[in-house]
Amino acid sequence: MKVAVIGTGYVGLVTGTCFAESGNDVICVDNDQEKLAKLHAGQVPIYEPGLEELFERNTKAGRLSFTDSLADAVAFAQVIFLALPTPPMEDGSADLKYVLGVANEISKLITEYKVIINKSTVPVGTGDLVEEVLAKHTTIPFDVISNPEFLREGFAVKDFMRPERVVIGTDSEKAQTLMRELYEPFVDSLDQVLFMDRRSAEVTKYAANAFLATKISFMNEIAQLCERVGANVDNIRRGMGTDSRIGHRFLYAGVGYGGSCFPKDVSALFKTSRAYEYHFDIIDAVMRVNYNQKLHIVGQIKKHFGEDLTGLTFGVWGLAFKPNTDDIREAPAIVIIRELLKAGAKVKSYDPEAMESIAKYTELGHTMVDGMYTAIEGVDALIVVTEWDAFRQADLTKVHSLLKQPLIFDGRNIYDLEKVDALGFTYYSIGRSVIKNEETIPTR
Ligand code: NAD
Q1: Residue 383: beta bridge partners?
Q2: Does residue 28 carry a catalytic annotation?
Q3: Helix crossing, 281-305 with 198-229: angle to 10°?
Q4: Which of 84, 155, 291, 374 could disulfide-pair with 369, CB 3.0 to 4.6 Å?
Q5: Model pLDDT for residues 96-135, shown as the tens digit of each residue
């Protein structure tokens, strides 16, 4: 099939590449010239495991190409995916200017039947708006359908190639047939392709993300309780997660959720509910808990050292909002670093993949270094913010010898309590007892 993907970011590039991998001819459109130059030079502009190999194979085979010409893409393709940004506006609702802007341009370009597929995460009713925009300029038949994307950054290729389900919101049989054909190579059974009305598909995406965010905030609240009652949140996760009704995933306490999706989607769902005169109580609480949780580790640091952190330097491990991505949008690390600097501290930071992304935050005022051990040389404490494997497998004896004092604040519970205790660290983590070591009792 001839496919166009508009927007070549985390979702668009993966979507386009994977559709090419299954034998389709794909044109990806972007208006970011820097990104296009990289793509034309054969470089993948984002870090996503497994993507480079597919990208290379399919560009070489001539099935995957890139352009800034929406007109060429619309003329070429029968199905047009919108994978455009839907960032939060100041009031927390989703900004639809990219989606509606491109819809408006497409309306002037179509000369035959097209299916316009919304892969961006958009509030309920956006499909209707896109349809209205298109209908203003054309009488040529088209279908606007909702096909929300559930891929996870860091596993995007795997998720796209083997999705647990594909949600398609449309009543059009013609569009349903095309979507079945397009997605058949990716699923074991067509039962995994769930057809529904467009509005339900739009809400499904928000409901899924809000539910996952709720699981995270719930565990962060359990962690808060654990710290007060002397229980261990890891044990509780094991005890709860083995209940198949609950499941193990998204039960990790930590520094709060971040990223390009959960924060904006949770807040957009709240805003949509408000617009329909419904106060979504649970979501309101989830957002509040998450805000406080990002600051919790800073609270632990201040409890240890006092409110004024002047004269202290911290080594931060992890800037990406989660491992296996270079994405730092809404990353808890940014909030934590900002708070530390505000309290007078200095920060040296390192991330295996996100150094280029964080470099854009010039106002942050931290020192970026090029190695995990360089970040902690002679600093007052190590702060773990992202649970990259390299940090999990760190040589803790070396960490001990490099730090000014053996002190770790671990926002991801990646170290074993007994092990860090035996090595003589003072160790703060989330929802677990604090391990105290005499050497690190602050002298200030
Ligand atoms: P992104 O910011 O990485 O990519 C968007 C791309 O669109 C950029 O490359 C940008 O240059 C391009 N663009 C903007 N305006 C354009 C225009 N007029 N013409 C052509 N290209 C244009 O965003 P993303 O993370 O890929 O997210 C896209 C959508 O998918 C969002 O709605 C997001 O919520 C949703 N989503 C994201 C993820 C994820 O993990 N990132 C997962 C599921 C759903």
Answers
A1: 316, 409
A2: no
A3: 30
A4: 374
A5: 999 999 999 999 999 999 999 999 999 999 999 999 999 9
Range of the domain at 42: 2-196
Residue type, 392: R
pLDDT for res 365 = 82
Name the CA dihedral angle for 358, 364, 368, 372, rounded to a multiple of 10 degrees: -80
Distance between CA atoms of residues 350 and 186, nearest Å: 37
Among 153, 179, 196, identify where a domain stops: 196
How many CB atoms lie under 10 A from the CB of residue 136? 11
Among candidate residues 62, 72, 84, the one with its CA nearest the CA of residue 6 = 84
CA atoms 245, 247, 253, 254: torsion sign: negative
**What is the tally of structural domains in the chain?**
2
Residues in the chain: 444
- CA–CA distance, 276 with 297 (Å, rounded to integer): 37
Q: What is the pLDDT of residues 257-316, one digit of tens each?
A: 999 899 999 999 999 999 999 999 999 999 999 999 999 999 999 999 999 999 999 999
User: Any idea what the CATH number is for the domain that residue 426 is in?
Assistant: 3.40.50.720
Strand pairing category for 426-428 and 407-410: parallel
Distance, CA of 105 to chain centre: 29
Name residues contacting ligand 1 (CB within 6 A).
6-12, 29-32, 35, 83-86, 98, 101-102, 120-121, 149, 151, 153, 260-261
- Which of 18, 28, 226, 261 is flagged as catalytic? 261
Q: Which of 149, 167, 196 is at the close of a domain?
A: 196
> Which of 28, 30, 360 for a ligand 1 pocket mutation test, highest count of atoms within 8 Å of Cβ?
30
177-to-30, 184, 187 alpha-carbon distances in Å: 28, 11, 15
- Six token digits for residue 191: 């039962």
Which two three-digit tokens encode residue 224?
Answer: 């808060």
The C-alpha atoms of residue 337 and residue 295 are separated, in whole angstroms, by 10
Q: Indicate whether 212 and 360 sit together in one domain.
A: yes
Give the DSSP H or E segment for 115.
strand 114-118
Q: Report CA(6)–ligand 1 centroid distance (Å).
A: 9
139 & 267 share domain: no
- Give the pLDDT confidence score for residue 366 in this predicted structure: 86
Asked if residue 45 lies in contact with residue 35, where contact means CB atoms within 8 angstroms, the answer is: yes
Residue 60 CB coordination number (10 Å): 10
**Distance in angstroms (rounded) separating the CA atoms of residues 50 and 157:** 6
Other CB atoms within a 10 A radius of the CB of residue 97 amount to: 13
